[in-house]
């Protein structure tokens, strides 16, 4: 093997970004991406509902790291090298402009993930990266002059340097290439998932959304504010997804059976709601309570919360007793649901777990245990609170690994 050969296992975002920068920095090297499926960048394709949440408009390295339940401290130095602003600039240089939505998520202005896929494929082609699909790796071993890989069809390949960018280790078997080279895997558990709740009145509200709630799990420190979406199976939306990310290991330990409190009006305290209800009683005593929602709650949701508080549909404000008012306030501030399971958020399928961070040098993404071995992306025990943060970790670790492998 006279030509310097670098093999990247995994044709996702991190693998492509590493390959592009490696080949760009070292034009004479043979850079090969091996992808076990028939399609490159398949996760990019479905992310963000098919729009691809490329990154997040958070341009301070330290502030950015606070969005990672696992990997926060480790990512400070890498993000000082390559962060969201660099991602925006790189894609712009390739002719892809990104736009920022109200919640900070950044998408291509085309609103199509295919734009990002085409960009990465073109950049890889221009850099001379070789792409091999339907090319799984069965095993890998360290040799004195590099690595030997055995592919799923029995072919053997040698390389000088090896990058594992195989995505999340959703089962221990997926991380066996890293284990075979001496690494330890933190147990994989799902992150970013929605909650199953059997409560009939809640399921009857499927499609209803609330701009800001506070969701918390009693008996834990888990508490998140943000938008909430009622689904046919329970609850979703950013508040729930963030709660699931920060609580990934804790909720796994509870076997996804736990109580959940929702504060539907986190901007108001008990006294403020009581005052509002008293004002209404004076101003419009003849109005029925179910037909007079407190803003910004949707009318359908308000009606169900009133009924859940034990207040009859036809009860007028003039007849609202102190005890009924107290029950309603408690329902608004602390509705309790029983979570009975989870559903993976298909667009943003993420695991926490993966290669132990202490075993990797985050200046270069090279293994501390096996020289010449590198890591990038979700194979590491790093995950963000939404897809854009996970992509940013992929771009950053891929950029670092690609440049280091070219050295």
Main attributes of the structure:
34% helix, 6-stranded antiparallel barrel, 407 residues
Kindly describe this structure:
The protein contains 14 helices and 21 strands. The radius of gyration is 25 Å and the shape is elongated. α1 (13-25) runs parallel beside α14, α2 (42-50) runs antiparallel to α6 and α11 (270-283) packs across α13. The two termini are 18 Å apart. The strands form six sheets. A six-stranded antiparallel barrel has the order 12-15-14-13-16-17. β14 (223-230) and β15 form a beta hairpin. It has helices at 13-25, 42-50, 61-65, 76-81, 84-93, 113-127, 176-180, 200-203, 238-246, 248-253, 270-283, 299-308, 322-333, 387-406, and strands at 5-9, 30-34, 55-56, 98-100, 105-108, 130-132, 137-143, 146-151, 156-159, 161-164, 185-191, 193-197, 209-216, 223-230, 234-236, 258-263, 335-344, 350-355, 360-361, 366-367, 373-375. It has 407 residues and is an alpha+beta fold.
Give the helix/strand class.
alpha+beta
Biggest sheet strand order reads: 12-15-14-13-16-17
Radius of gyration: 25 Å
Number of strands: 21
What value does the average pLDDT take? 95
Molecular shape: elongated
Q: How much helical structure, as a percent, in the residues?
A: 25-40%
Helix count, DSSP H or I runs of 4 or more residues: 14
How much strand?
Answer: 25-35%
The low-confidence parts are: none
Largest sheet: 6 strands, antiparallel, barrel
Separation of termini?
18 Å
């Amino acid at each position: 093997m006279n030509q310097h050969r670098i093999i990247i296992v995994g044709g996702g975002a991190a693998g492509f970004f590493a390959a592009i920068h490696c080949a760009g920095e070292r034009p004479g090297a043979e850079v090969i991406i091996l992808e076990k499926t028939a399609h490159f960048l398949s996760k990019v394709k479905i992310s963000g509902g098919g729009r691809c949440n490329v990154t997040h408009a958070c341009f301070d390295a330290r502030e950015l790291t606070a969005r990672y339940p696992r990997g926060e401290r480790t990512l400070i130095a890498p993000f000082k090298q390559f962060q969201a602003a660099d991602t925006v600039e790189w894609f712009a240089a390739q002719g892809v402009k990104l736009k920022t939505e109200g919640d900070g998520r950044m998408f291509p202005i085309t609103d199509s993930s295919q734009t990002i896929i085409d960009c990465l494929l073109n950049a890889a082609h221009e850099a001379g990266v070789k792409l091999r699909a339907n090319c799984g790796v069965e095993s890998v071993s360290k040799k004195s002059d590099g690595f030997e890989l055995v592919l799923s069809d029995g072919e053997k390949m040698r390389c000088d340097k090896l990058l594992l960018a195989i995505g999340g280790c959703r089962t221990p078997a997926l991380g066996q290439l890293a284990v075979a080279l001496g690494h330890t895997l933190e147990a994989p558990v799902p992150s970013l998932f929605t909650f199953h709740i059997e409560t009939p009145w809640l399921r009857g509200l499927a499609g209803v959304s609330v701009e800001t709630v506070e969701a918390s799990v009693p008996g834990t420190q888990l508490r998140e504010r943000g938008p909430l979406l009622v689904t046919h199976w329970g609850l979703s939306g950013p508040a729930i997804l963030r709660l699931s990310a920060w609580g990934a290991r804790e909720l796994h330990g509870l076997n996804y059976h736990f109580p959940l409190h929702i504060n539907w009006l986190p901007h108001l305290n008990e006294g403020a709601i009581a005052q509002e209800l008293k004002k209404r009683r004076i101003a419009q005593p003849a109005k029925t309570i179910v037909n007079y929602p407190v803003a910004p709650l949707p009318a359908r949701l308000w009606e169900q919360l009133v009924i859940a508080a034990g207040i009859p549909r036809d009860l007028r404000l003039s007849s609202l007793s102190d005890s009924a008012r107290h029950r309603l306030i408690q329902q608004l501030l602390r509705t309790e649901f029983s979570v009975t399971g989870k559903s993976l958020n298909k667009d943003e399928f993420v695991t926490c777990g993966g290669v132990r961070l202490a075993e990797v040098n985050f200046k270069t993404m090279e293994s501390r245990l096996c020289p010449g071995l590198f890591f990038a992306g979700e194979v590491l025990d790093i995950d963000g609170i939404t897809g854009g943060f996970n992509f940013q970790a992929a771009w950053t670790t891929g950029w670092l690994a690609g440049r280091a492998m070219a050295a």
